[in-house]
Structure formats: C-alpha cells, structure tokens
UniProtKB/TrEMBL annotation:
InterPro entries the UniProt entry points to: Glyco_trans_34, Nucleotide-diphossugar_trans
Family that this chain belongs to: Belongs to the glycosyltransferase 34 family.
Species this chain originates from: Aspergillus sclerotialis
Listed GO MF terms: alpha-1,6-mannosyltransferase activity
GO terms (BP aspect): protein N-linked glycosylation
Keywords: Glycosyltransferase, Transferase
Protein name in UniProt: Alpha-1,6-mannosyltransferase subunit
GO annotation, cellular component aspect: mannan polymerase complex
Length: 318
C-alpha cells in the first residue's frame, strides 16, 4: 500500500523577493512611468506650441517671395478705375522688392460670412492668401482705401528687421486706447513677434497689419473668425472683436507688437480718429483714407486722386 508523500517545499532562492514586494515594486514603477510620460507629453506640447509659433515656413521653391501683400476689395462697391489704381500701386511695390501681390474680392467669401458685415472678409482674405502661398513668411494686409506712398522703402528695412521692430515696439502701453488696463508686455523681443499692428485714437486697427505665417497665425485667424464674435453684433464688427481677443487672450498679446500709427497706418487729414501723431506726413510708408467709404460727405476716389498722382510722379522719378 502506498501513501501520498507530503508536498515538497522548494527552498527559497537567495535574494528572492516576496510576491507582495514584487507587486508593490511593479506598482511604483508603473506610477513613475506614467508620471514621466505625462511630464514628457506636457513638455513636448509646450515646446511644440512655442517653437512652432515663431517658426518660419519651410524653404519654398526658388523664387518664392517672403512677403505677400493682401488687399480685399469690394468689386460691387468700387469702380474699375479705382481698383486698377489700387492694384497698380501694390504691384509696383511688390515688383520693386520681390514681393507678391494678392488681390481678393469680398464676394468670394459671402458664403462664409453668413449675416456678418463684409468687413470680416479681412480674415478670410488673409487665410486665403496664406493657403495660396504656403511658403511665404509675412502677409501684409492693406485696406483698399490706402496707398503705399514710399515705394523705395521695403517692408523688411522698415519694420521686419529685428533692430527696426525692436526700436518701434510700444511696450507697457494700453492695448486699447486711451486707458485700457491691459497693456502690452514690456519683456517682449522682436523674435517673439508674429503680429505687428498699430492703434488709432480708439482701437487696434487692422486696416494695415503684418502677420507671420505659422501655427500662431492659424490659431489667431481661427479665433478672430469665431462665429460667436461674428454674431455678437459688435459696433465695429471685426475691430471690436480684435480689441476683445487681445485683452482677454494673453496667448495673442504675447505674440503681438504694437507700433506707432504712422509706421504702418497713417491717416489722411480728412480722416477722423487718428492717434496723436497718427496723421500722414511726407515719407510715411502708407497713407490711408480711413472712413472714406462710411461718410456720405466724403469720396474715396476724390481723396485718393491727388495722392495717386503724387505717387505716380515718385515712381517715374525713381
């Protein structure tokens, strides 16, 4: 008769860990791994956002211009002769400095605007230009009721070079004049900037501004064109929406340089609302007939004609 033998117990191996200790060790290692993954993910996202915001587009094909001049015209409201003069003014400037001229029509964007004013086509026009010229770096939006009056001065030497931008940036000033509590950052450098704009007497004014292509530009234009802002019925539509965005979104403020009005957006003497020293003087890059299309007593074509003739003389003499 056979008897069952008692179960054999294997002696513990030297330095063996108990199952309980091993389980706890695994939990600790898992927690450390998850924490490390989370930290690396956050660092990756932050580095991607801030690095890509200031990055320039990849080098494009030979002949790609660094600057695109964007003008959105309302062909239903402006005469053909007026539009030809505007286009001629931009094309001459673009040819001189190796830039590209992009003319858009507000009617091309009516399906996107829904019931919003046509002035919102500033945003759609800029997005259209960036999509059409993905390898260009800077996009210079210029209102149709404006002329480039100093054709020999390139945008680079005037404002885009770091030293020039540094010297013109207004720091620690109210974003929205005259005394908004939100002010431009005092620590910003030219290398931080993706949006260059000026103020008039009452608002940031997007009639003339420069935007650098990149992730920030896409974010900024999408934010600005948010349906909530277009439907909010701001008194000045896209202008007041921009004032709101910059004051409530430090992400935008941290990438924006405010420059003196005459740097990019000098007003004619017939225009109201110019900032102090914001009225056009000989030698300024841009002359803008601000509000000429909104005042029945004014004529955009009549105001522009003598300055257009003056510009033609300059072009012929160069």
């Amino acid at each position: 008769m056979q008897f069952a033998l008692p179960p054999r117990k294997n002696p513990p191996l030297p330095y063996a860990h108990s199952p309980r200790i091993s389980f706890q060790r695994k939990k600790q290692l898992k927690a450390v791994a998850l924490l490390a993954f989370a930290v690396l993910s956050v660092l990756f996202l932050l580095s991607h956002v801030f690095a890509s915001a200031t990055s320039s587009p990849a080098t494009g094909p030979a002949g790609t211009s660094s600057v695109v001049i964007v003008t959105v015209v309302d062909r239903e409201a402006l005469s053909d002769s007026y539009i030809r003069k505007i286009v001629s003014n931009r094309e001459d400037y673009a040819k001189r400095h190796g830039y590209t001229n992009f003319i858009a029509n507000t009617t091309d964007y009516t399906s996107y605007l829904e019931h919003a004013p046509r002035s919102w086509s500033i945003v759609t026009g800029m997005r259209h230009a960036m999509a059409s010229h993905p390898h260009s770096t800077y996009f210079f939006h210029l209102d149709p009721h404006a002329l480039i009056m100093n054709p020999s001065k390139s945008l680079h030497s005037h404002i885009l070079e770091k030293s020039e931008l540094e010297s013109r940036m207004l720091k620690d000033v109210s974003v929205v004049p005259p005394d908004s509590v939100v002010k431009t950052f005092s620590h910003l450098k030219a290398s931080d900037i993706d949006l260059i704009i000026s103020r008039d007497k009452e608002d940031l004014n997007p009639g003339s501004f420069v935007l650098r292509q990149g992730d920030f530009a896409s974010f900024f234009l999408d934010l600005w064109f948010d349906p909530l802002f277009r439907a909010y019925n701001f008194a000045k539509a896209e202008v007041h929406a921009l004032d709101h965005i910059v004051q409530w979104h430090p992400t935008v403020l941290a990438r924006m340089a405010v420059v003196p009005q005459r740097t990019l957006n000098a007003y004619s003497r017939d225009s109201t609302g110019a900032a102090i020293d914001g009225t056009y003087k000989e030698g300024d890059l841009v002359l803008r007939f601000f509000g000429c299309d909104l005042d029945a007593k004014r004529s955009c074509e009549g105001e522009m004609e003598p300055f257009y003739n003056l510009w033609k003389k300059k072009v012929k003499s160069d």
